[in-house]
Amino acid sequence: MNGIKALQSLGQSIWYDNMDRELLISGAMAELVQQGVTGITSNPTIFEKAIKSSTAYDTAVREADATTVEQLFDEISRSDIQEACRLLMPVYQETRGKDGYVSIEVAPVLAHDAVGTVQEGRRLFEAIGMPNVMIKVPGTPEGIKAVQALTEAGINVNVTLIFSLTLYKRVMEAYIRGLHKRLNSGLDVQSVASVASFFVSRVDAAVDAQLKEMNASESLFGTAAIANAKMAYALFEETFSSSDFKELAAAGANVQRILWASTGQKNAAYDPLMYVNELVGPNSVNTVPPATLDLLQKRNDYKVTVEQNVELARQQIQSLAEVGIDIEDVVNSLLTQGLQAFNQSYASLLDALRSKQEQVR
């Protein structure tokens, strides 16, 4: 049993945080699916790297009908996502819609535009035309409004850039409200799926930087991210075992699985699998970058860990507060930084496409 299958046996899906046409064409992505990968996530940064590093997009760029680079990216990304959805369709069918998803993100410029996000989410879902596509929406207040509307419309949503427990609770509530509205309208709730992408390693990077400036105790370093994530999982279990979800569950609704994002280790001093080992649990997803997937595959002795030591996690967050680190302030700043980074990545992606156009002419 490989590492992916070992984690699956414990109720956790492994998705691949990478999208590259070369991987699709060569069969490498199909091989990963055979090994047990059951989903793929993408974002502008991933597409930028793929376009810069591969000649697989040259013909598409040369022959595209697009008049702007934004339209060109739309054509290229939709084509890749459709192909990935076809690749994962057997997984989607075998798991009856519980798994087998490919995520594509709405343009970062819509992060604070609820109406625009809903319109773009609908457009992408219809244009891709595959039931196993997920529309990525940022966990901003406006994004959360869009989550409810898209869920009510029967569109699968991956809510991204979640760092805060407060915002995470609102994300789950928005998903549940959207399902209730569908059910009350006599619409099917079984075919709707969603994940909430809770970011991990960036929390440690931010908190550790503050601890270093304070010359704080070494015992506090590398504790914030996993503690924050374990408290999020406890909130997940509480929310989806509540009476508010029971009626939906009886109608066949899916829980909104928690997805661990940013799980590649950013500090070389830490175990490169620390954000895998400590966050194993049922009804969860871990979307991992290539290097982490390679390491993950070499082990098969995983065990459920995310439900353990939750009280210790609360104490660790309290210990950080006692030295002057407010975790809510940290995670709110990380959301702002994440949105800025996505906007910058999108701009860089468009620049890369312009360069590619010049190269292939």
Automatic annotation (TrEMBL):
Pathway: Carbohydrate degradation; pentose phosphate pathway; D-glyceraldehyde 3-phosphate and beta-D-fructose 6-phosphate from D-ribose 5-phosphate and D-xylulose 5-phosphate (non-oxidative stage): step 2/3. It catalyses: D-sedoheptulose 7-phosphate + D-glyceraldehyde 3-phosphate = D-erythrose 4-phosphate + beta-D-fructose 6-phosphate. Keywords: Cytoplasm, Pentose shunt, Plasmid, Schiff base, Transferase. It is found in: Cytoplasm. Its EC number is 2.2.1.2. InterPro entries: Aldolase_TIM (IPR013785), TAL/FSA (IPR001585), Transaldolase_2 (IPR004732), Transaldolase_AS (IPR018225). The active site is at residue 136. Its main location: cytoplasm. GO terms for molecular function: transaldolase activity. It is an enzyme of class 2 (transferase). Transaldolase is important for the balance of metabolites in the pentose-phosphate pathway. Belongs to the transaldolase family. Type 2 subfamily. This is Transaldolase. The lineage of its organism: Bacteria, Bacillati, Bacillota, Bacilli, Bacillales.
